[in-house]
């Protein structure tokens, strides 16, 4: 789903990633929050009982779209700004022995705060921000990935994977821009094309050669990611889930091809012999095709749910668009190259998902990447922002910020978690109505839950502070 209402609550850009050239900011503050903040005092005064607009037991409702500070006591600017506000929180032992922080003004690109911000740390899943930005830069937000069926020269057909892990074999795939491509629809279209040619039996092959190199992630077989393949259905999941850990197929290519053959039979087309790997020729004739959701929609799903399978697919699609081999190594090089092109040099990218501890990224780079995504001159990067989970409401932040009311609904951030590693990078509307970007990284953590709460307190403090450095 797209987060229309929640995006408004968070005070960021319009849902769907569309932002006008002028952007929603003026003078470093979001216009909606600025205007409401300016009117808030007058509105509250007019609604006091003594002004004749209320009465005992009937207080006026608070405004909705305001900076965090408007909901509580006024925040005076501290002498040392964010340094005074965040410094004590960074000393929390839950953050381990190594941690860093960076905070930027999204409108001006000014760094508001830094603490060891230039040191590279293992980012865990916050590296998906880099993968997303690279894919959007290389492919554009409207690009789609096709899964096709072609007629080969021997009278058979070949199912050709394009690299869409969200291709589904399930019924009831839903509707809207994030509706996944349907394997059943592909089989139905293929059957119609074959019957139009007078064929009701056919040999079926499959081609997953678009990707290269090892399919299994360096962490090994894992419930958090399937073998990375150009042909799979439902992310190789062996249950009915569409997010989070799940038992995965060890051979998603063969499983997808087998399901396609079964669906062809359901459509009245017999399958001759075994379904086997077969390379589609360059001159093979396309019979049918289905398309993935747009890259923008895939990016949003990746970031909201921290989807490792889609992240690795986006990295490989970036490699293909960059003329590099669609392998772990080629994808890492392509993502790094695209970051360099965005002026974000210095990252060491090993994979697209952040499961590899060899990834090394600084808090400064992550915070600046989010500034790039907010730049009105780079509207193609906007899904990096619209896909961020909303504190207390969506995705991997749905169950967080229960104790940090100042950040709930205002913080939008990508989470990152590995054993001993906890990170958080995103955007927040501060008490002055400014949109700021931040990245907090911690290594050597011993209690993941405590570390997450410490990170949430940091982001909530940025929301509640509004103090200038």
What characterizes the major β-sheet?
5 strands, antiparallel
Unreliable stretches covering 5 or more consecutive residues: 1-79
Q: Which CATH top level class of the largest domain fits? A: Alpha Beta
The figure for the number of domains is 2
Order of helices and strands: HEEHHEEEHEEHEHEEHHHEHHEEEH
| SS elements, strand count | 14
Spatial sequence of strands, sheet with the most strands: 4-3-14-13-12
Class per helix and strand makeup? alpha+beta
Alpha plus pi helix count:
12
- End-to-end gap: 37 Å
Q: Look at the structure and give the mean pLDDT.
A: 85
Comma- or semicolon-separated keywords:
469 residues; alpha+beta; Beta-lactamase; D-tyrosyl-trna(Tyr) Deacylase, Chain: A; 5-stranded antiparallel sheet; 5-stranded mixed sheet; 12 helices; 14 strands; disordered N terminus
């Amino acid at each position: 789903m797209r987060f229309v209402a929640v995006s408004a609550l968070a005070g960021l850009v319009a849902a769907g990633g569309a932002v006008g050239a002028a952007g929603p900011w003026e003078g470093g503050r979001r216009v909606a929050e600025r205007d409401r903040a300016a009117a808030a005092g007058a509105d509250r005064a007019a609604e006091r009982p003594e002004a004749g607009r209320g009465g005992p037991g009937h207080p006026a409702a608070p405004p909705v779209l305001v900076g965090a500070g408007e909901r509580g006591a006024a925040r005076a600017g501290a002498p040392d700004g964010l340094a005074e506000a965040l410094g004590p929180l960074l000393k929390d032992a839950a953050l381990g022995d190594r941690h860093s922080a960076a905070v930027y003004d999204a409108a001006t690109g000014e760094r508001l705060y830094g603490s060891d911000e230039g040191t590279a740390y293992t980012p865990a899943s916050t590296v998906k921000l880099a993968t997303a930005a690279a894919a959007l830069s290389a492919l554009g937000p409207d690009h789609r990935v096709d899964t096709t069926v072609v007629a080969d020269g021997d009278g058979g057909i070949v199912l050709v994977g394009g690299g869409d892990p969200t291709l589904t074999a399930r019924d009831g795939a839903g509707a809207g821009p994030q509706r996944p491509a349907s394997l059943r629809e592909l089989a139905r279209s293929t059957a119609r094309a074959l019957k139009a040619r007078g064929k009701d039996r056919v040999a079926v092959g499959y081609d997953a050669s678009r990707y290269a190199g090892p399919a299994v992630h360096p962490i090994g077989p894992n419930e958090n990611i399937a073998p990375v393949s150009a042909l799979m259905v439902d992310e190789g999941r062996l249950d009915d889930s569409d997010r989070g850990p799940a038992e995965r197929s060890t051979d998603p290519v063969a499983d997808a091809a087998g399901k396609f053959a079964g669906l062809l039979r359901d459509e009245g087309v017999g399958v001759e012999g075994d379904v086997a790997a077969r390379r589609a020729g360059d001159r093979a004739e396309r019979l049918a095709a289905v398309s993935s959701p747009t890259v923008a929609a895939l990016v949003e799903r990746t970031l909201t749910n921290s989807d490792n399978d889609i992240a690795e697919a986006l990295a490989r699609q970036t490699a293909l668009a960059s003329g590099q081999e669609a392998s772990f190594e080629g994808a890492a090089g392509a993502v790094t190259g695209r970051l360099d092109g965005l002026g974000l040099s210095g990252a060491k990218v090993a994979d697209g998902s952040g499961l590899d501890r060899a990834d090394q990224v600084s808090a400064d780079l992550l915070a600046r990447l989010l500034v790039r995504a907010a730049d009105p001159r780079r509207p193609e990067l906007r899904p990096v922002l619209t896909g961020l989970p909303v504190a207390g409401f969506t995705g991997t932040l749905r169950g967080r910020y229960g104790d940090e009311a100042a950040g709930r609904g205002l913080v939008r951030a990508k989470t990152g978690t590995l054993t001993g590693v906890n990170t958080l990078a995103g955007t927040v509307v501060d008490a002055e109505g400014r949109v700021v970007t931040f990245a907090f990284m911690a290594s050597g953590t011993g209690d993941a839950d405590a570390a997450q709460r410490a990170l949430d307190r940091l982001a909530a403090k940025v929301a509640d502070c509004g103090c200038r450095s």
